[in-house]
Design brief:
Layout: H1 7-14, H2 18-27, E1 33-35, E2 38-40, H3 43-52, H4 77-93
Antiparallel strand pairs: 1-2
Helix pairs in contact: 1-2
Length: 94
């Protein structure tokens, strides 16, 4: 059985403040127990907590793809055409 670790040890491992670890314990996100008035976290609970907060890569492509110069964009080409028509009308009317 692996020994339990302290919140301060977890803070040092994760390069977080001890207060951040104590908040995770207080919110119930990181399970802990008290031994003789001192908080301890089981290694398995710590590893599970790390896995729950793991950042996974997005499955879709990039959030924004800039349009290629000269290519019609399905969403923007109509807008640009309308904008140019309005500008031409305003120039003729002036």
């Amino acid at each position: 059985m692996t020994p339990a670790i302290t919140p301060k040890d977890i803070a040092a491992l994760e390069r977080l403040s001890p207060d951040a670890i104590y908040r995770a314990i207080a919110s119930g996100d990181l399970p802990a127990r008290k031994v003789c008035g001192r908080l301890r976290v089981e290694r398995a609970d710590y590893e599970a907590w790390k896995q729950r907060h793991r950042v996974r890569p997005r499955r879709s492509g990039p959030m924004f793809v800039p349009p290629v110069a000269g290519a019609d964009c399905a969403t923007g080409s109509r807008f640009l055409a309308d904008l140019q028509a309005v500008e031409q009308r305003s120039l003729r009317g002036a």
